[in-house]
Specification:
Shape: globular
Helix content: 10-25%
CATH topology of the largest domain: Protein Transport Mog1p, Chain A
Order of helices and strands: HEEEEEHEEEE
CATH architecture of the largest domain: 3-Layer(aba) Sandwich
Number of domains: 2
């Protein structure tokens, strides 16, 4: 009888430990978690991990994300797609920031033609975090519907925390 009681306590302990382990795993920093102390604020995107914020004009509207994006917003225009448009991506890459073209050029080649890198320079945030500023121009191939043949100008800033890249871009359709 005593062995049964001890065995019951051991089984209960294992079940309890498994419950804590599952709870801890479900509360581990996942990318889509947001800090609970900041309520959704128009004009402010807050990312839980890696922690960062990006502000944008309050009148812009949030849009569905594409590919690896975690956020997308744009300036509303009546009967037209939003422009300019802000997009934010967070993803892993072991490459140094200087190798941004290895990550992004295949996408630009797929989406556009006449791609020109107008600027590519190292930069840093106010706190000294290193980053990269890139500006390019391209003509859309048309996979974005009404944007076929339109010239776009993209400006983005890339930084990283360990092997995680944070990519904040601003894209503007230029009038032709």
């Amino acid at each position: 009888m005593r062995k049964l009681g001890v065995l019951s306590l051991i089984v209960a302990g294992i079940v309890l430990m498994a419950g804590f382990s599952t709870s801890a795993q479900s509360q581990s920093p996942a990318h889509d978690e947001k800090p609970t102390f900041i309520s959704p604020t128009p004009g402010l995107y807050v990312d839980g991990w890696p922690p960062f914020t990006v502000s944008y004009p309050k009148e812009w509207v949030e849009m569905p994300v594409l590919f690896s994006e975690v956020f997308r917003a744009g300036a509303p225009r009546q009967n037209l797609s939003p422009s300019p448009m802000l997009y934010i991506s967070v993803f892993s890459s072991p490459l140094p920031l200087e190798d941004w073209a290895k990550m992004f050029m295949p996408w630009y080649v797929m989406m556009g033609t006449d791609i020109k890198v107008l600027s590519d320079k190292p930069s840093q945030l106010k706190d000294g975090t290193p980053g990269r500023e890139v500006q390019l121009e391209y003509v859309s191939k048309g996979s974005q519907g009404a944007s076929a043949g339109r010239k776009f100008n993209d400006l983005y800033f890339i930084t990283r925390k360990d092997v995680v890249w944070v990519y904040v871009g601003l894209s503007t359709a230029m009038e032709v």
